[in-house]
TrEMBL record:
Lineage summary: Bacteria, Bacillati, Actinomycetota, Actinomycetes, Kitasatosporales
Similarity-based family: Belongs to the DyP-type peroxidase family.
Cofactor(s) essential for the protein: heme b
Annotated Gene3D superfamilies: Bulb-type lectin domain
Domain DyP dimeric alpha+beta barrel, first and last residues per copy: 31-184
Protein name per Swiss-Prot or TrEMBL: Peroxidase
Length: 623
């Protein structure tokens, strides 16, 4: 068996899967788990967080479970049929359309248990591999999980608790069918010494609250489209057909082994192809406290003339969220909410292009902090916004949130309630952690003379700048009313990878490392790394390029504190450090060699060779 799959479980090679307009091959995939691209989209969800008691029996459990895992093809076909029936019924859910979906993901310790050792040989510092290996609890400072959100208070995922090896997701249209599926899976776990660590229930809110999160706002509106899965608009092919404002993003931003939009491809073993990384976070919401804060702030703003005399707490909350409770974006209706017809969906067609300084939709609003769209002027002196194509598109995540607990009206203030946050991305650091650390929790993002403040919905405590008039600001102190009660990083394998894990044929370390070869143009941003295991070429926060070995010992450095903002391997054949103005601060003496190849070697050396194979330059770090 091992010999038959060696070619499949080797190094991931990124593929460019951009289809013709008439082709959507990802919709037919029986390899990709169904929640990643298609989305389960069910009213009732249960997450079973599990621990393996015996390797052999855990593999057998996974092998049997694999046949019950829902694929993208299955879920897509159902969702399309459901949508057609709903349109026919003028927005009502079809009575006889129902399904139960299953998905499974594995933590780093869970992968190690199934494989019989570390699943990854190469785990560079600052890489998504490191994030997966460390888990959320060890990265609490980066994620803002401090104080009441500290892992010491978590219900699952903390170091002092039972380890979680697998997360089994079950989703259904009907609660009775979900209960039956959960009982079936519990029985299967018991037969194979797979133990329940924690069980998370979640469901859409009832009645008129359906589609809202607990603060009372429509949720799940701003999802990215995916090239090769979602149809492009014939008149505007960078956007999804039938969903104005929804940009189509490269599948490689969500699936391992496919070309991303803007960054270098991280080395990962081939058995991880068409899998993804999952973030699971249980976020408790203090609904009354959040709305009380909105009331306090609008009173304060009215008192200084920064809000209209008729402004309500809903007016203030809309500025904190970036949308009105109905889902109407603030730029579409700055003064009042405009509820939608019962069968209509809130729009994702939002532009901040004519509001770069946040006079209408504050720069601290949740909508702008988590997805700046066309309105990100990184510094006050910038003349125009950053382009969405490339770096901003490449920060998007596929989010699958659903509430848990009773509404505030039904359960009272002290009842457990909140949002079960789930997201999928191909790079934990460049996507989820970047958004969380660099945007949500950063009081100085975007950079302004009067600090913008943190996200007032999911960020930590801090002071924000509320826009007043053409250029003024009024300072507001925001408290934290969302706290983390548990978190996990997991890997979601393809159906083939589940089979190989169950059969025990994936080698410890994931497979042999290989030279990492790149042709121009190639851009490295601060913190990004190219690694062959023994050679880790990293663009440091200081603006320097370094080579570290497998033990993270520095063996070479380009210069000292250059302050460069980008490192580029150029079509001319040179590797250069660039200033904000695009000027080369430092460069290799290899210009004039178009077609040159930059390689991080498994010997520990980093080199540039001409198209003909002549060695032009190297770091001399082989060991």
């Amino acid at each position: 068996m091992m010999a038959n799959i060696q070619s499949d479980i080797g190094r991931v090679t990124a593929r460019d899967d951009s289809p013709d307009d008439s082709e959507l091959p990802l919709r037919e995939s029986t390899e990709i788990q169904g929640d990643i691209l298609a989305g389960f989209k069910k009213d009732h969800v249960r997450l079973l967080m599990l621990r393996f008691g015996d390797r052999r029996q855990a593999r057998e459990w996974l092998g049997r479970l694999r046949h019950r895992i829902s694929t993208t093809a299955e879920v897509t076909a159902f969702n399309e049929s459901f949508s057609r029936a709903r349109r026919t019924a003028e927005g009502a859910d079809p009575l006889h359309a129902a399904a139960v979906w299953r998905g499974v993901s594995l933590t780093y310790p869970g992968l190690a248990e199934l494989i019989g050792g570390d699943p990854l040989t190469d785990v560079p510092a600052g890489s998504t591999q490191e994030a997966l290996a460390q888990g959320c609890a060890r990265r609490k400072e980066l994620l803002g999980d401090t104080g009441e959100s500290d892992p010491a208070h978590w219900l699952f995922g903390a170091g002092h608790q039972e380890p979680v090896h697998a997360v089994l997701t079950l989703a259904a249209d009907r609660p009775g069918e979900l209960r039956a599926a959960v009982e079936e899976e519990r029985a299967a776990c018991e037969r194979h010494k797979v133990f329940l660590v924690f069980e998370q229930r979640a469901a859409t809110l009832p009645g008129a609250r359906r589609g809202q999160e607990h603060f009372g706002f429509r949720d799940g509106i701003s999802q990215p489209g995916v090239r090769g899965f979602d149809a492009p608009d014939p008149q505007d092919p960078v956007h999804q057909k039938g969903k104005p404002g929804t940009r189509l993003i490269a599948a490689g931003e969500f699936l391992i082994g496919r070309a991303p939009d803007h960054r270098v491809v991280t080395w990962l073993p081939g058995w991880m192809r068409d899998g993804t990384f999952q973030v699971v976070r249980r976020l408790a919401q203090d609904v009354e406290g959040w709305w009380e804060q909105a009331e306090e702030h609008v009173r304060a703003l009215r008192a200084v003339g920064a809000a209209p005399p008729c402004a309500t707490k809903e007016w203030m909350a809309a500025r904190m969220m970036g949308r009105w409770p109905s889902g109407t974006p603030l730029p579409h209706s700055p003064d009042r909410d405009t509820p939608l017809p019962p069968c209509a969906s809130p729009t994702n067609d939002v532009s901040f292009g004519d509001d770069l300084d946040g006079r209408v939709t504050p720069l601290f609003s949740h909508l702008r902090k988590t997805n700046p769209r066309d309105g990100l002027k990184a510094t006050e002196d910038d003349k125009e916004a950053l382009a969405q194509e490339g770096i901003l598109d490449g920060r998007r995540v596929m989010r699958r949130g659903i509430p848990f607990g009773p509404t505030a009206e039904a359960g009272g203030r002290d009842a457990a309630r909140g949002l079960l946050f789930i997201s999928y991305q191909s790079d934990l650091i460049a996507q989820f952690e970047f958004i969380q650390r660099t945007w949500v929790e950063a009081g100085d993002f975007p950079e302004r003379e009067s600090p913008v403040g943190r996200d007032p919905v999911i960020g930590g405590e801090g002071t924000g700048s509320f826009p007043v008039g053409e250029s003024g600001h009024h300072r507001l102190d925001f408290k934290k009313f969302v706290r983390t009660e548990g978190a996990l990083y997991t890997f979601v394998p393809s159906l083939s990878a589940l089979k190989w894990l169950a059969e025990g044929v994936i080698p410890v370390g994931g497979g042999p490392l290989e030279d990492q070869r790149y042709t121009a143009p190639l851009t490295l941003r601060r913190g990004e790394v190219i690694s062959s295991g023994k050679a880790r070429l990293r663009f440091q926060e200081s603006g320097d390029l370094t080579v570290h070995d497998e033990g993270e010992h520095e063996r070479w450095r380009s210069t000292t504190d250059s302050g460069a903002v980008l490192a580029q391997f150029r079509p001319s054949g040179e590797l250069a450090l660039l200033s904000e103005e695009g000027e080369a601060i430092w460069a290799t003496p290899t210009a004039g060699h178009p077609g040159a190849v930059l390689t991080a070697r498994t010997t520990g050396d980093v080199e540039i060779r001409s198209a003909e194979g002549e060695l032009l330059w190297h770091t001399d770090t082989a060991h």
